[in-house]
Specification:
This is Vesicle amine transport 1 like. With 419 residues, the protein is of the alpha/beta class. The protein has 13 helices and 16 strands. Strands 3, 4, 5, 6, 7, 14, 15 and 16 form an eight-stranded mixed beta sheet that branches. Strands 10-9-8-11-12-13 form a six-stranded parallel beta sheet, with helices on both faces. Strands 1-2 form a two-stranded antiparallel sheet. The structure holds NADP nicotinamide-adenine-dinucleotide phosphate (NAP).
Length: 419
């Protein structure tokens, strides 16, 4: 078994070398003037096309250099989010062209400053949002998306922070106006956003959190959520059994028929927020059937009904707010508040596991398998754990046909570093 592991590690190295001899893929930031083969290269995860796990490669790419207003960051850790699975599948609106380097957030050390950048110095420890390109050894991103991190915040924690905590904070406090004594329903309560929501709710007195999650997670997360239900349970009945009037806030990342269920659970003046469509992911590749089913099942809302029933319906997309709608200033204010809560030890990112860049496929498979509690992190300096026989995410060089790996969790033999 061990020998097979060594062979697989060598195979991965060869995969990198093979990629290094190819033309550089599109998608890096900077002027791209460095050619592959120069000393100025970096490693990055590249998505070669939309589809299954076999569309991911570790490649060498030209070293990016900061443009005016950008910071160059030597990356230590990157966040892996559910949206990255959807990007890989091409399961998002207006997907960008491939090849691309995935990833929307990272942490690391400032290595260079573009012209006109103020307030940062080389050597600063930072976390950042990146509009793609985060899963690389070096990243350039506009200064408006970069935040200094506290001394006692580790790089994995910092990479787990921006997307999940900012999303949770904006939904609870900017959109739904969470206050003392309210109640919140959150799906995927053991996941990255789910745990951030639970922690932020605990900063307000007397907030009741109803959560759904796979049952095996309940023991681990029971202290963060007031009432937990299995993800397949009839949660509408369960919530009404405990609180006949329903809840004040429904946070729905599933979509489909959960929209109607969520609306039916709202108390008068309650707020329903749609912020994801996890139900559309039913296998390793995009399923048009699941997409259509989810779309078809969404409750078609009549504003007159909302008026009569005193209900608020909202949507939230952090990436659109940041990268399309220019609200970086608002988000900086939110990050400041979140860092204050972190410094007061009221919130702390839950890191599920650390993975080397070479292990990105296994990391994504863990989310497909619903195995994570908290956030998965790509640790740029981690050495990959040798693969064992039967590994389910070995690179397929034979072709681009994807298999559906759903429910295939028994095969995985590479164990992550669990924090
Ligand atoms: N709108 C925004 O700005 C924004 C920002 C961040 C995240 N999101 C959304 O929030 C949701 C959670 O994101 P996250 O990054 O924190 O991920 P996450 O919750 O850690 O995602 C993994 C968990 O989701 C649950 N899940 C639900 N449907 C699933 C499916 N079809 N396949 C696999 N797992 C599924 C599983 O938990 P259980 O089995 O325990 O349910 C799984 O462990 C996603 O829908 C994401 O797109 C939205």
């Amino acid at each position: 078994m061990a020998k097979e592991g060594v062979e697989k590690a060598e195979e991965t190295e060869q995969m990198i070398e093979k990629e290094a001899n190819k033309e550089p893929a599109e998608g890096g930031c900077g002027d791209g003037s460095h050619r592959l083969g120069d000393a100025q290269e970096m490693r990055a995860v590249v998505l070669t096309g939309f589809g299954g796990l076999n569309k991911l490669r570790l490649s060498r790419k030209p070293m990016p250099e900061p443009q005016d207003g950008e910071l160059k960051i030597r990356v230590k850790a990157c966040g892996l989010n559910f949206i990255d699975l959807m990007v890989r599948q091409g399961n998002i609106d207006n997907p960008p062209k491939t090849p691309l380097v995935p990833g929307f957030e990272c942490s690391g050390i400032v290595e260079a400053l573009g012209d006109s950048v103020k307030g940062y110095e080389i050597g600063d420890r930072v976390m950042a949002f990146v509009n793609y390109n985060a899963w690389a050894e070096v990243v350039c991103t506009p200064v408006e998306f970069v935040y200094k991190i506290p001394e006692d915040m580790s790089f994995p924690e910092a990479a787990a922070f921006p997307v999940h905590f900012v999303t949770a904070y904006v939904m609870l406090f900017e959109v739904a106006n969470l206050r003392e004594g309210m109640s919140v329903l959150v799906h995927s309560a053991g996941g990255g956003v789910g745990q951030a929501v639970a922690q932020l709710c605990s900063t307000i007195p007397n907030v009741t959190v109803f959560g759904t999650a796979s049952t095996f997670k309940h023991e681990a997360i029971k202290d963060s959520v007031t009432h937990l239900f299995d993800r397949n349970a009839d949660y509408v009945q369960e919530v009404k059994r405990i609180s006949s009037e329903g809840v004040d806030i429904v946070l729905d990342c599933l979509c489909g028929d959960n929209t109607g269920k969520g609306l039916s659970l709202l108390k008068p003046l309650g707020t329903y927020i749609l912020y994801g469509s996890s139900n559309m992911v039913t296998g390793e590749t995009k399923s048009f059937f699941s997409f259509a089913k989810s779309w078809w099942q969404v409750e078609k809302v009549n504003p007159i009904k909302l008026y009569e029933e005193n209900k608020v319906i909202a949507g939230f997309s952090l990436l659109n707010l940041l990268f399309k709608q220019g609200r970086a200033g608002l988000i900086r204010g939110v990050v400041d508040k979140l860092l204050a809560l972190y410094n007061q030890k009221k919130i702390k990112p839950v890191v599920d596991s650390l993975w080397a860049l070479e292990e990105v496929k296994e990391a994504m498979q863990r989310i497909h398998d619903r195995g994570n509690i908290g956030k998965l992190i790509l640790d740029v300096e981690k050495t990959p754990t040798p693969l064992m026989a039967n590994d389910s995410t070995e690179t397929s060089e034979a072709g681009e046909e994807e298999e559906d790996h759903e429910g295939d969790s028994e095969n995985k033999e590479r164990t992550p570093f669990i924090q």
